[in-house]
Amino acid sequence: MRIALGIEYNGSEFRGWQTQPGGGTVQDSLETALTQIAGMPIGVVCAGRTDAGVHAIGQVVHFDAPVARPLTAWVRGANTFLPPAVAVHWAQPVSDDFHARFSATARHYRYLLLNRPQRPGIEHGRIGWYHHPLDIERMQQAATQIVGEHDFSAFRAAECQAKTPIRTIYAAQVRRYGELFIFDFEANAFLQHMVRNLVGSLVFIGQGKQSIDWMLELLATKNRRLAAPTFAADGLYLVGVRYDACWGIPGMKGSMAEMMPAWIGA
Questions:
Q1: Residues acting as catalytic residues
Q2: At what angle do helices 214-221 and 136-143 cross, to 10 degrees?
Q3: Distance from the CA of 254 to the CA of which of 22, 84, 224, 241 falls in 20 to 30 A?
């Protein structure tokens, strides 16, 4: 039986999603816990591989269960064996042709940025930081320019292994809650470091270092070296993954404005 899981994790505690020699990744931890429940090795596939330090509150994975277990075993049982920084939210049987990555139609990433002279303390590791004042209206206008299908070569990591840099962004928003700036991006898929590179360039525009039309210029050049530096992983969250209703996967609930980690308090 193929099982889908919804999980969350604090990326500060891991070396990224994908398994590595020596362990220390989210995938390693999850597979170890599920193996304890099944009594035999389990391998999982995720909807979006996150880098070291990147968090998730709506990651989706699937695996093929070699033995029958109650769904509660894949949730409460697995959580018993997982480290504190990762937890399973739900488990659901799916058809054998469901694939956590290839069946997804959209992914939603959010970047949380603290904008004040002092670095974060209590939110350390869970939020990005920029000390110069930022203009929200300039960033909002610039964000609208990347919506649609584009070649995002200017915003991909040098080591990105994607076969094509073409991606379609369905929505891009920048909002402000006091000292907190919230960047939301929903797309069919993302390139490695793409969101963090988009945020970095939008911040340059917000500070006045570049014009509002700079995002369009970067898209046209397709040159990563001309864009802003990659922003820190701390503030990046995989918020949710969207699937067609036929799969019966719990969807990305609510609008972007409503999907807020509870600890923010806004």
A1: 51
A2: 40
A3: 84
Q: Decide if 239 contacts 110 (C-beta within 8 A).
A: yes
- The residue ranges of the chain whose pLDDT is under 70 are 251-266
Q: In the chain, what are the domains?
A: 2-102 (3.30.70.580), 105-239 (3.30.70.660)
Query: At residue 132, what is the residue type?
Result: H
First to last CA, the chain: 41
AA identity, residue 206: G
Distances (CA, A) of 122 to 151, 247, 264: 38, 39, 11
What was the pLDDT predicted at 266? Answer: 36
Residue 68: DSSP 8-state = -
In this prediction, residue 250 carries a pLDDT of 84
Q: What share of the chain is helix, strand, coil (3-state, %, to 5)?
A: 30, 30, 45
pLDDT value of residue 255: 40
Q: Are strands 236-243 and 55-64 parallel, antiparallel or unpaired?
A: parallel
Are 26 and 9 a contacting pair, CB within 8 Å?
A: yes
Report whether 111 belongs to an annotated binding site.
no
What pLDDT sits at residue 254?
43
- pTM for this model (two decimals): 0.93
pLDDT of residue 116: 97
Interatomic CA distance for residues 207 and 72, integer angstroms: 49
- Tokens encoding 97: 């042709």
